[in-house]
Specification:
This protein is α+β, with helices and mostly antiparallel strands and 107 residues long. Helices cover 24% and strands 10% of the residues. It contains three helices and two strands, in the order H-H-E-E-H. Strands 1-2 form a two-stranded antiparallel sheet. The radius of gyration is 15 Å and the shape is globular.
């Protein structure tokens, strides 16, 4: 999928995803700045309006009604690598009580 390679705009990526438009869930993995620009496009319709600042190993969940989206998406969650380590109890995780309940993620 050449359109999913680094350096392609959100429009190219969404066009490449057309065969998956019936999918209920889809996971994309990428690098900055392309991934942040794609997230912005899914959330606002503009790649430049709200680029998410993903750190290496960061993850976000964005709900959209259709591919390509016809309306703004919804940011469900956006986690840094440190937050993921804390959730998983991995090495270097700080002991902290998070303000949300894990059960809500499995709804």
């Amino acid at each position: 999928y050449p359109s999913l390679a680094p350096g392609h705009g959100a429009g190219d990526v969404l066009a490449a995803l057309r065969p998956y438009r019936a999918a209920r869930q889809l996971m994309l993995v990428g690098h900055q700045p392309d991934l942040g620009a794609l997230a912005s496009h899914l959330l606002t319709g503009s790649s430049a309006l709200l680029p998410l600042a993903f750190k290496k190993g960061g993850v976000a969940a964005i709900a959209v009604g259709a591919l390509p989206p016809r309306t703004a998406g919804v940011l469900l969650w956006f986690l840094t690598p440190g937050q993921l380590r804390a959730i998983g109890g991995g090495r270097g995780a700080r002991q902290r009580v998070w303000p949300w309940r894990m059960a809500a993620w499995h709804g």
